[in-house]
């Protein structure tokens, strides 16, 4: 840790702790050449910038990237400017566009040295630094596994060049992995591990397969990927992204275009972009025996909240009670052993502790995204319900157990 890191005050009227915290969910904003800089010329036509109705945007396979409203990120929303919305305190019924506040892009959003300085000011000892629009790419390429793999490799090369996967203990920036092609995924895992990656990141959702029925992420065909990650002690982060679940909205009379934060009442209630994909993905991993075959595998779910977890516990418990012969071990024990959870700030963190245990809770501020917190240490108020000892686990010790100093 930098000797300049301080425990940053969050304000006289806000609770704080007297130690540096660990943050499992911060983000960078990708530059325009994050894919093209290292992309094989063979695939250059797959991703391109274009002006559409006076706005600069990204086209992938000829379709507009909609996971973020402005992929240039200049201007960009201020950190935490939608906190009131996500705490369900929009009592005036404002539209998102009327709640968000904008600013010019800040140096720390794209520059590693500036980010380290900001971490020092925030009192954050280590952060996991994650993609912004990166996790919206895979779904748009699902019919082309070859191009998907090439684009992910190009993106990961850019990431290593600008941020480093794990140059020190301050910033852990996981390369993105797609399971669209098992052999290519194995090769990419080998490549990034050789370069020092300590974690990888996947989007929540099913595996794309243009040739037939999508396989489970726990299908034995992917065991080469999971074995490499488990045996190397590499943490697997599963993060919200375009899971492709908007296709189900058409069955209920809704539009199917993925538009990030924009939603209708029904899409908000169904939570097809957040709770449904991670519920299904974790159920598949457990029920299809992934952790039985790879007992050293460690998974962290980030920016997916924890509201889905109690119901998953309930359903796993019921399934185990009905058909214990179909499981190699108690699925609840497997879930608790292998999975760490970063709750949303609007979640009930004490309820998360009740089902998953205090040693499996992580802090994820989502800084500097507008749906996140204004500052990472603002989370202290939401974690106080845990008490001092368990709060310290959630704000620091649990992440150290995953990616602390070696």
From TrEMBL:
Keyword hit for Kinase: no
Name the record gives this protein: Amidohydrolase-related domain-containing protein
Cleavable signal peptide: none
Any GO BP annotation: secondary metabolic process
Span of domain Amidohydrolase-related: 115-398
GO molecular function per UniProt: carboxy-lyase activity; hydrolase activity
A cellular-component GO term for this protein: cytoplasm
Gene3D superfamilies for the chain: Metal-dependent hydrolases
Keywords assigned by UniProt, alphabetized: Lyase
One protein family per Pfam: Amidohydro_2
UniProt KW Cell membrane keyword: no
């Amino acid at each position: 840790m930098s000797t300049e890191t301080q425990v940053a005050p969050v304000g006289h009227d806000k609770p704080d702790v007297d130690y540096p915290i660990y943050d499992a969910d911060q983000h960078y904003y990708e530059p325009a050449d994050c894919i093209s800089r290292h992309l094989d010329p063979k695939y250059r036509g797959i991703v391109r910038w274009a002006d559409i109705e006076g706005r600069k945007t990204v086209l992938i396979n000829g379709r507009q990237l909609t996971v973020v409203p402005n992929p240039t990120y200049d201007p960009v929303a201020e950190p935490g400017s939608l906190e009131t919305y996500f705490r369900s305190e929009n009592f005036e019924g404002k539209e998102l566009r009327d709640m968000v506040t904008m600013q010019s892009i800040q140096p720390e959003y794209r520059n590693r040295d500036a980010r380290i300085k900001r971490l020092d000011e925030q009192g954050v000892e280590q952060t996991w630094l994650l993609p912004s629009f990166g996790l919206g790419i895979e779904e748009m390429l699902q019919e082309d596994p070859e191009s998907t793999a090439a684009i992910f490799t190009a993106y990961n090369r850019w990431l290593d060049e600008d941020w480093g996967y794990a140059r020190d203990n301050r910033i852990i920036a996981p390369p993105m992995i797609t399971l669209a092609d098992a052999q290519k995924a194995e090769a990419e895992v080998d490549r990034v591990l050789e370069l020092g990656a300590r974690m990888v990141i996947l989007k929540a959702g099913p595996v794309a397969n243009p040739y037939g029925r999508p396989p489970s992420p726990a299908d034995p065909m992917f065991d080469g990927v999971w074995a490499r990650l488990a045996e190397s002690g590499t943490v697997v982060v599963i993060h919200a992204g375009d899971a492709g679940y908007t296709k189900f909205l058409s069955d209920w009379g809704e539009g199917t275009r993925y538009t990030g934060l924009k939603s209708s009442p029904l899409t908000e209630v169904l939570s097809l972009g957040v709770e449904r994909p991670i519920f299904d993905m974790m159920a598949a991993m457990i029920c299809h025996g992934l952790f039985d075959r790879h007992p050293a595998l460690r998974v962290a779910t980030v920016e997916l909240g924890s509201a889905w977890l109690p119901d998953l516990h309930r359903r796993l418990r019921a399934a185990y009670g009905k058909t214990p012969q179909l499981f190699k071990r108690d699925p609840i024990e497997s879930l608790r052993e292998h999975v760490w959870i970063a709750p949303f700030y609007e979640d009930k963190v004490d309820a998360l502790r009740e089902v998953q245990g205090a040693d499996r809770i992580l802090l994820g501020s989502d800084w500097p995204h507008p749906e996140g917190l204004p500052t990472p240490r603002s989370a202290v108020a939401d974690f106080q319900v845990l008490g001092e000892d368990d709060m310290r686990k959630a704000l620091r010790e649990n992440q150290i157990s995953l990616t602390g100093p070696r």
